[in-house]
Amino acid sequence: MKLFDTHTHLNVHQFDEDREETYQRAKDAGVEKMIVVGFDTETIESALAFAESHDDVFAACGWHPVDAIDMTERDLNYLEELALAKKIVALGEMGLDYHWDKSPADVQKEVFVRQIQLAKRTKLPIIIHNREATRDVVDILKAERAEEVGGVMHCFAGDVDIAKECLDMGFYISFGGPVTFKNAHMPKEVAKIVPADRLLIETDCPFLAPHPYRGKRNEPAYVRLVCEQIAALRDEPEEDVAQQTYDNACRLFGLNL
């Protein structure tokens, strides 16, 4: 069974002591490909370094909305230069996050828009972060015609109607650990209705570990638990969901199957 973890942060300090061991556990669990996501200068550099040292690992680079206030013109130019790197397959994560108050909403929106425009110039898909900002995220994607590059709604937490809006724009819907939580009714309902060819899975490790590891450090090997849950929700064989999400990820990110 082939699995593709489309959103990991193996580049962060939580894995400094056992990064290679964690990677190997993922391989042993059937994770054949993964994307390591950088969200500021330090994590972008470490994501790219890790991807370049592993044939089956790829990287994404973007500027996280929480830190939007820190992004400079130089940083944006840096992202544009990096987009040419062979191992960079997407821009992101980018978007809006109204949970934390470090960066004002207007600054977040400006940085988000500029990264979408960058994606259009570089012709790379985008990885969307949304926390407590759903309506504004979707409205900006529509206003900027983000469907021209497409991408993925990472760790989707919206309802069925929002999912349909995103699907209408050509976006993929990705589910992580929260879909396995007992009280996560909305993600479970959305997972049932997403077309098979728009479905992705992820861990967002080290965050949001799936049941029964909730509250502990997440890692790419646990993406199999996400796959199992979605297969159960859709009443489909786990192997079929694994293969479909693997193929979908390869198609979105321009990779060989």
Could you characterize what this model shows?
This protein is α/β, with parallel strands linked by helices and 257 residues long. The chain has a single domain, classed as TIM Barrel. Strands 1-2-3-4-5-6-7-8 form an eight-stranded parallel β-sheet. Helix 7 links the parallel strand 7 and strand 8. Helix 8 packs across helix 9. The longest helix is centred in the middle third of the chain and has 18 residues. It is globular and about 45 Å long. The two termini are 13 Å apart. The relative contact order is 0.15. The model has no long low-confidence stretch (mean pLDDT 97). InterPro entries: DNase_TatD-rel_CS (IPR018228), Metal_Hydrolase (IPR032466), TatD-like (IPR001130), TatD/YcfH-like (IPR015991). Pfam families: TatD_DNase. Keywords: Hydrolase, Metal-binding. This is TatD DNase family protein. GO terms for molecular function: DNA nuclease activity; hydrolase activity, acting on ester bonds; metal ion binding.
